[in-house]
Design goal:
By secondary structure, this protein is of the alpha/beta class. Helix content is 34%, strand content 27%. It has a 6-stranded mixed sheet with strand order 6-7-8-3-9-10, sandwiched between helices. Strands 2-1-4-5 form a 4-stranded antiparallel sheet. A hairpin with a 2-residue loop joins β9 (213-218) and β10 (221-226).
């Protein structure tokens, strides 16, 4: 990360005390503040309905905040929404309408609309298609594409001529594991080239691997902000035990010394201090001998654990690879 002096110069996006309510007074964004730096991948992590997409729509000028300021490279985008749409490139959560176009045509069209030269857009389109291993689909009509392939085309459309801020709203939905990794390579490449990346997701595992910093948003509020490592640090409880329960078994009651735990389906996770590892292993072995758990594992605390502790909802989790 940058030092304080250079950080102020490299701040690209500032969201300052933004509030937004919908009909009947439902508060969707409640006094949200955050900032993005040049070359940074910043995650906006939270469950569905937390207010993430509403905030994005205000950043790119599609909605207007009830109060607060949003500045992009020093420009007030609430007063100048056209500048936001020019300075940001955006992959929406919903699928983009590309039927009737080939992969190559869809990507090149957006690149030229965003002001890229024909030659440079054509070159970058070819690079993206090759690096995403989409060569077999380059000249095929997108009408027959799967949801995952359409998602990849939409990603390439968003980054072929990247803005100062690149906003990716759930970019890997329906994408196969191999191409997810290729996509993240391209995201890091964009950051290294100087774009600030705003990643909107509820996939905890991908966020931990991909982002430099993140904000956890819940019920319209930013509840924590920091690096993945800083969010995982919780009073020395830097280890986790995960139990996979046998079907039909009740959730076991852990020894009283283990306070932080959560249950999600057949998974039961306990956070603990290093000094507690031996005693908790004895308890886990006992449960396995009794036929109450299929298997167990122990390792370092994950961002998922921190997320569950902060948000406190097992239904907020998505941890698919």
């Amino acid at each position: 990360m940058k030092n304080n002096d250079s950080a102020s110069l490299d701040t690209v996006l500032i969201v300052d005390k933004v509030c937004k309510s919908f009909v009947k007074g439902k508060i969707v964004n409640d006094n949200i503040s955050l900032s993005l730096q040049k070359g940074e991948i910043f995650g906006l992590l939270g469950p569905n309905g937390a207010g993430k997409t509403t905030l994005v729509n205000q950043i790119i000028g599609l909605k207007k905040p009830d109060s607060g300021r949003i500045t992009l490279a020093g420009v007030d985008v609430v007063a100048n929404p056209g500048y936001a749409r020019q300075a940001c490139s955006f992959q929406a959560q919903t699928q983009v309408p590309i039927s009737g176009l080939t992969t190559r045509q869809a990507i090149e069209l957006v690149g030229q609309v965003r002001g890229g030269s024909v030659q440079e857009v054509r070159k970058r389109t070819g690079e993206l298609i090759h690096k995403m291993e989409m060569d077999d689909w380059a000249n095929k009509n997108s009408a027959s594409f799967s949801g995952g392939m359409r998602r990849l085309v939409a990603f390439c459309m968003a980054v072929v001529v990247p803005g100062r801020v690149v906003i990716l709203d759930e970019p890997t939905n329906d994408v196969d594991p191999l191409r997810r990794r290729l996509l993240w390579n391209q995201v890091r490449f964009l950051a290294e080239r100087g774009s600030a990346i705003l990643l909107v997701t509820h996939n905890v595992l991908e966020a931990e691997r991909a982002v430099d910093r993140l904000a956890i948003i819940n019920d319209g509020k930013v509840v924590r902000i920091g690096t993945p490592a800083s969010l995982k640090d919780t009073d020395g409880e830097n280890m986790r035990l995960e139990l996979i329960l046998e079907p039909g078994q009740e959730t076991p009651v852990p020894p009283s010394s283990f306070k932080n735990n959560f249950h999600n389906g057949h998974r039961f996770v306990i956070q603990l201090h290093e000094s507690q590892v031996l005693s908790v292993l004895e308890w886990a072995r006992y449960l396995k001998e009794q036929g109450k758990v299929q298997e167990f594992s122990i390792g370092p605390t994950s961002l998922e654990d921190a997320y569950m502790r902060i948000v406190g909802r097992s239904d907020a989790l998505e941890v698919a690879v």
